[in-house]
Amino acid sequence: MHGGMNMRRVLVLGPPGAGKSTLALALGARLGLPVHHLDHVFFRPGWVQVPMAEFAAEVGRLAAGPGWVIDGIFLDVLEPHLRAADTVIYLDLPPWVTLFRILRRTLNTYGQTRPDGPVGCPERVDLGFLRYAMRFNARERGKILRFVESFNAGARVLRGQAAIRRFLAAQPMALPESLRHADPETV
Asked: For residue 159, which of 109, 90, 113 has the smallest C-alpha distance?
């Protein structure tokens, strides 16, 4: 099991609806690392896409940071943050699970901007996105799995919610910033 103390630059990948943002937030809290959702970088208010060159530059800037958890599945810009990552996690869930989660999320937050969603982008029904999500594994899974499995020892493929829970539970909690450099005699 990959120990939390070694994880400083964590990339969380997976199909839409797999729980990337949820895991990224939980890992960031456990490891004491900032979390960057690539959807926040890719979309401007009203679901307007940022030009790809601008997006890639911002992803590169984020990846140059000393520690982070980044979640997203933007295959065109994986290279900059894969080179910088020490850990890559792929959430390998079947389409029926991810589609159910997307539909549940949409129904629960319809018309609202999700806390982990891009600013000014209220949840909506998007048939093109639902088609993309349904076909994601058939079109992208093999390529991503080969990519992840070719990564160094820090690669993890988590299949199912139980595996995700076990992985997260195995990560130690980070000390609060106020205690990280404190004199042990005064704590």
From this structure: 90
Kindly report the pTM of this predicted structure: 0.85
Q: Where does residue 38 fall: left (phi above 0), alpha (psi -120 to 50 degrees), or beta otherwise?
A: alpha
Residue 107 exposed, middle or buried by CB count within 10 Å (0-12, 13-18, 19+): exposed
User: How many other β-carbons are positioned within 10 Å of the β-carbon of residue 50?
Assistant: 15
Give the fold, CATH level 3, of 4-171: Rossmann fold (3.40.50)
Q: What is the pLDDT along the chain (187 residues), one digit of tens a residue?
A: 444 447 899 999 999 999 999 999 999 999 999 999 999 999 999 999 999 999 989 998 998 999 999 998 886 777 666 778 889 999 999 999 999 999 999 999 999 988 888 999 999 988 999 999 999 999 989 888 887 877 766 889 999 999 999 999 898 877 555 444 444 444 4
End-to-end CA distance of the chain: 30
152: left (phi over 0), alpha (psi -120 to 50) or beta: beta
